[in-house]
Amino acid sequence: MPPPRTAVEGPIGPPRETDWAEAVAAVRRWLPDGRILLVCHVNPDGDALGSMLAFAHGLARLGARNVQATFPGPPEVPESLREIPGIDRVIPETEAWAAPDLLCTFDAASTGRLGGLADRLGTARDSVVLDHHASNPGFGTVRLVDPAAAATSIVVEQLLDRLDVPLDAEIAECLYTALTTDTGSFRFATTPSVHQMAARLIATGLRPGEISQRVFDSRPLGAVKLFGEVLGRCELDQEAARGHGLCWTTATRADLERHGQRAYVLEALIDSVRCVAEADVCVVLKEIGDDSWSVSMRSKGAVDVSRVAGLLGGGGHRAAAGFTGAGTPEDVLASVRAVLDESVIR
User: Fold this and answer.
1) Is the dihedral of CA 74, 296, 110, 215 positive or negative?
2) Do the Cβ atoms of 328 and 287 come closer than 8 Å?
3) Are 78 and 183 in contact (CB under 8 A)?
4) What string of H, E and C letters represents the secondary structure of 180-193?
5) Rounded to 5 degrees, what angle do the CA atoms 274, 277, 282 make?
6) 122-156 per-position pLDDT tens digit
7) Could you say which DSSP state residue 96 is in?
């Protein structure tokens, strides 16, 4: 067996044909008996899980016998994603191979998003990174990072096509769940190619209405009450972000406990805040530990929130980004406001 290849870091850009060829070769190198570990980011959303599981199905079609799929942190996902085909393949990170032959990562904008599984970049013989975040610093031995893609699932579909894996019902449902999640049900970052991909997926016979209802329109009553309480705390500063406006709110662990909800239900909260007409930027602070906050940021387009998040240790896209903040909510918000005042305004 070849020794592990050295993971490298560096600037990223749209995948070149040589990158695609290297990725195809890396996958085929370990078929059918190599140990292939698939990892998506912590607190996975639909794009992360759907992309990973679509590729797991694709590997099965290619005859792969040893495939694991996992993500860092507690092995739980939102109810809205528990019917994705292949979700039963996901194992706890503690059971993942320490030194796989091939590591494939999905939708992870940085090694930090891989949590305790990031060390596999050093122990895997090959590593293929599939992502679409412009803030991705570049890591892994093969990098398929396309900042122009609306979702990581677009990159995955292209790799599956190059591997001669045809779309079927299971793969299509995983990819469609991923695509509709990251485009906000085709409201954001959509292009003709996005809708063309959706058409290919729908042509396999999947029911897009059922998927959308499950992903976007189903929420426990406790979560609805929790959202109402947290949204009631929203504050607005129309002078922030150089007059483009800032709206923010905070959700605590006590809020979750009071309404009997798990932390992942808060991932959808940002969509309710971003609709505030008077603000281009919206921010949701979610308590994850003592003086520790997961911060979600969204922009309607005037402010590049990926730059703001990047300067605060995170990353993402121009219109959607995040980071982890420390201190009181007031401390974290002050850091956001300070960087917003210096951010690039289109």
Assistant:
1) positive
2) no
3) no
4) HHHCCCCCCCCCHH
5) 30
6) 999 999 999 999 888 899 999 999 999 999 999 99
7) S
